[in-house]
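Ligand-bound model needed. magnesium ion.
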Amino acid sequence: MTALWKDILHNEQLIQDVAAIAVDAALLEGVLMRTEEDSNVSDVVNFAPFTLLPSPVPSTLFEQAYAVQQDFNLLVDAISQNAEFLEHTLASTIQVDAFTAQLFKIHKQVLKEGLAQSLILGINRSDYMFDHGEEGSPALKQVEINTIAASFAGLTSRTTAVHRHVLNILGKTKEASTLMYNNPAKGLAMGIAKAWELYGSDRAVVMFLVEDIQRNIFDQRCVENELWNRNVQVIRRRFKDVFERASLNEDRRLFIDGQEVAVVYYREGYVPKNYNKQNWEARLLMESSKAVKCPDIATQLAGTKKVQQELSQPGTLERLLPNNTESVARLRATFTGLYALDMDKEGDKMIAMAIADPDRFVLKPQREGGGNNLYGENLKQVLEKTKDSPERTSYILMDKIKPQPMMNYLLRAHSPLKISECVSELGIFGVYIRQGKDLVMNKHVGHLLRTKAVEHDDGGVAAGVAVLDTPYLI
Ligand code: ADP
Ligand code: MG
Ligand code: MG
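Prediction:
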């Protein structure tokens, strides 16, 4: 186990005192969330959960994650333009997963109509864990890539200052000074602002498509306010507003409440519960419009777990990124074992393996937002139940990444302070813009470190499991 901060970790009085100071710092810096009870007003807010101390991250893996981000941007972009690949890859999934099927249907429909907009804005976050493996030196392994509504760029931009303060209070000024500048919120805003500018209408606005329940609004406000600082107007609307009041003009420009929308930035729309019949209609309207969609529906599909699994198949990366062997090698190095559960011999074999050794694997449905994957005994039960039915193809199987745990304190409102054995997940934010055939922007714009107690298999800050953290490079 990593011994970072071991001189203070067990000094209970000191930890109590510093935790109180850390919470005040978080409130001052704006590391905030609305409460579960008052999720749509800011009268009562609390600090978003975070670690007391920054967690160790091997610098070589941190650099590797940054170095591969532009490759992931290229890859997602290539997939989103490859209708044949999406169709082929998702063919069996859409037979059994109604949500993916509905997204796919809209994708086909807009392709048939002809795309109204050739500008694409992609914002994604590629997530990794540090697999300890057998050899002992950790390896960077991708958990997944999020191509829609990737969150916490805002709050993470403010978390570093909290940890810097904590380290200073603890007399660790040298360590404090090494914490890196990190402002992905600015990077996201830069991408959105560029897409807005290329759309080319001064009076048009950026529309954040937001959820009915908006607990994580401060994270979004960080990006929003950066846009206002660049004189880009932002409005916030829900699917319901779009359904009731949005329309397209004769050249398919999107209007709502008398304003033209240049960019739709989705912070909603990634899970089935976000949709009813009217919301699907609203999605189709936006998708058919001339507004720049972040992401468009093809890019959302490119982020499915099924696509991730297909990418790990021999030859797939080479086909998607021809003549780009360096990118392919960098991408492949981050993959762990991913397996399809098709109705064939190979699928049967994997299911038998997973039932025999469930702790080696994670079983993943086509869902987002944390809390959907199956592990251990649950994984075994679901596979036993579905193994003879095509339903099994709605999942993919993945090797479980096994990071080395370390000790930290997870600070949460109304929770007692206790030391926990933890593991971390590093995310890198990528932003790119394509205009017709030209990639006019391709950047990595910052990182997010989330840490959770080892007793939780699944993650997610919004899901109430992981907390915000800052990497301390070792
Ligand atoms: P989601 O889209 O719901 O966030 P993820 O693939 O990120 O789905 O899985 C959710 C969480 O489950 C991750 O944050 C991580 O904590 C855990 N997890 C997912 N895949 C693996 C894996 N292969 N090995 C270990 N943990 C995993
Ligand atoms: Mg996800
Ligand atoms: Mg995830």
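Residues 23 and 76 are 38 Å apart (CA to CA).
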